[in-house]
Design brief:
With 153 residues, this protein is an alpha/beta fold. It is built from 4 helices and 5 strands.
C-alpha cells in the first residue's frame, strides 16, 4: 500500500476495532438491550432528525451503524451504536468506539469525530477510547473537548 500501512496491519486494526465493538454490544446485551436493524426503528427516524415523535424509552434497543445526521463535510453520518430505552436519554444516546492497540492514525481521527458530534449528531454521544495505543495527549485533548461540549452544549 502506498501510505506505508501494510495490509496485515490494516486487517489487524479492523479486527481489533470489531472486537471492541463486539465487547460494547455484549455489554449492552447483558444490560438488557436487544439489537435492531436501523430500518426496524422507523418510529425513531423522526427523532433522529429533530422532529417530535414517540418516546422510545419503553424498550431497551441498540442499533449499529445508525444514521445520526450530516458530517462537517455534508455527507451522511452513522454512529457505531445508538441506544434507546435509557431514561436519561429519551431520544437516544450515540456510542462511538475508538480502539487503538498501537500508536497510529486513530488519534488524528478524534478531532474529526468530536467536530462531527458537535455539529452533526442529533443525539448526545459518548466516545469509548481504549486499547492502550492512544497518545496520552490525544486522550487529554478528547477529555477536555468533551468537558467543553458538556459545558457549552
Amino acid at each position: 500500500m502506498g501510505n506505508g500501512i501494510s495490509i496485515s496491519s490494516k486487517l489487524r486494526a479492523e479486527r481489533t476495532g470489531s472486537t471492541a465493538e463486539a465487547t460494547i454490544l455484549g455489554t449492552l446485551r447483558g444490560r438488557g438491550y436487544t439489537e435492531c436493524a436501523p430500518g426496524a426503528l422507523s418510529v425513531a427516524q423522526p427523532l433522529l432528525f429533530g422532529d417530535s415523535g414517540p418516546n422510545l424509552t419503553a424498550a431497551k434497543r441498540v442499533v449499529r451503524q445508525c444514521p445520526v445526521g450530516m458530517s462537517i463535510y455534508g455527507t451522511p453520518l452513522a454512529a457505531d451504536f445508538i441506544i434507546y430505552g435509557a431514561a436519561a436519554f429519551p431520544h437516544g444516546l450515540a456510542i462511538e468506539s475508538k480502539w487503538q492497540h498501537a500508536q497510529g492514525s486513530v488519534d488524528e481521527k478524534l478531532p474529526y469525530l468530536v467536530f462531527n458530534i458537535r455539529e452533526g449528531y442529533s443525539v448526545p454521544a459518548i466516545i469509548v477510547a481504549d486499547g492502550g495505543g492512544h497518545r496520552p495527549e490525544a486522550l487529554r485533548w478528547l477529555s477536555f473537548s468533551y468537558l467543553l461540549l458538556a459545558l457549552c452544549g
